[in-house]
Amino acid sequence: MSWSIEIDTNTCIGSGMCAGVAPDHFELVEGYSKTLQDRSEPSEEVVDAAESCPVEAILVKAVATGKVVAPEE
What we know:
This protein is α+β, with helices and mostly antiparallel strands. It has a single domain (about 5-70), classed as Alpha-Beta Plaits (2-Layer Sandwich), CATH 3.30.70. It has helices at about 15-20, 45-50, and strands at about 5, 25-30, 30-35, 40, 60, 70. A four-stranded antiparallel beta sheet has the order 4-1-5-6. Strand 2 (about 25-30) and strand 3 form a beta hairpin. Keywords: 3Fe-4S, Electron transport, Iron, Iron-sulfur, Metal-binding, Transport. InterPro entries: 3Fe4S_ferredoxin, 4Fe4S_Fe-S-bd, Fe-S_cluster_ET.
């Protein structure tokens, strides 16, 4: 199983929470979040990063099903 990681660049405010929580998956580039890879194996760090985003700009979905993994509603 793999996950897709999407960042809504129009929503991102560049807080850096994602890069702080999951530095192996996110970085800040010119003040905005960027994924290091568009896909990831399931990782608690990725979920924590999506959940910690103050504007919910990160969307994590299961590739096979399209089911939203994070953020939880």
